[in-house]
Amino acid sequence: MNRLKQAISEKGVVISDGVLKVDSFLNHQIDPALTLEIGKEFAERFKNQEITKILTLESSGIAPSLTTALELGVPVIFSRKKKSLTLSSNLLTAKVYSYTKDETNEITVSKDFIVEGDKVLIIDDFLANGEAALGLTSLVKQANATVVGIGIVIEKSFQPGRDKLEQAGFHVESLARISSLKNKKVGFIEEMVA
Ligand code: G4P
Ligand code: NA
Ligand code: NA
């Protein structure tokens, strides 16, 4: 997706060989026009899948999920990382290990909102090691619902996440695929336009 790649090139800051900072349009300040285009692109890529729900993880997955959901006409559910005061029973839970933080967190979703028969599109802002996305797929499976695909805004293709998700049988669509962050430079995987 060209406009996204342009934003990454112009506004992204390479923090290290492994980390890209995109706080000016995705992870802190949010660019609404770009996020709207991201939603349209995800909706186009997954349009024939009879999606009934979008599932994401708070917080940075919510904005691109919302714009995609508007296009597809379905609700968004965001999984929580912290226990909620009003949400304490009737939960689906999964453990997610974070390599960057070296800690395991429990993510939760109410059983009221992902139900048997749902066809779920999972969306997240970054794909690194794939642990967050795998945790989300586990929540869907526990509800006897189906994951129809995983949409990622920025994939770090030099990390193992995509391979892990594909080996687990999931269809992954990433709008920007980064091949390298070496020498403070963002390299993209060039993709054929179908
Ligand atoms: P994993 O799910 O792929 O295994 O990733 P990991 O636990 O290592 O990621 C922890 C957090 O860091 C996640 O956000 C993830 O989106 C983010 N992240 C991973 N790599 C990068 C990167 O190169 N750049 C940026 N900007 N973020 C990255 P989170 O803690 O869930 O935060 P948020 O969703 O509230 O923003
Ligand atoms: Na993030
Ligand atoms: Na995230």
TrEMBL record:
Gene Ontology MF term list: xanthine phosphoribosyltransferase activity
Pathway info: Purine metabolism; XMP biosynthesis via salvage pathway; XMP from xanthine: step 1/1
Record flagged with keyword RNA-binding: no
Positions that bind xanthine: 20, 27, 156
Catalytic activity line of the entry: XMP + diphosphate = xanthine + 5-phospho-alpha-D-ribose 1-diphosphate
Superkingdom in the source lineage: Bacteria
GO cellular component, one term: cytoplasm
Record-listed 5-phospho-alpha-D-ribose 1-diphosphate binding positions: 128-132
EC code: 2.4.2.22
Top-tier EC class: transferase
Subcellular location: Cytoplasm
Gene Ontology biological-process annotations: purine ribonucleoside salvage; xanthine metabolic process; XMP salvage
Keyword Cytoplasm appears in the UniProt entry: yes
Keywords tagged on the record: Cytoplasm, Glycosyltransferase, Purine salvage, Transferase
All copies of domain Phosphoribosyltransferase, residue ranges: 33-159
Coiled coil feature spans: none
Pfam family, one: Pribosyltran
Subunit structure: Homodimer.
Function text: Converts the preformed base xanthine, a product of nucleic acid breakdown, to xanthosine 5'-monophosphate (XMP), so it can be reused for RNA or DNA synthesis.
Record-stated family: Belongs to the purine/pyrimidine phosphoribosyltransferase family. Xpt subfamily.
Protein name as it appears in the record: Xanthine phosphoribosyltransferase
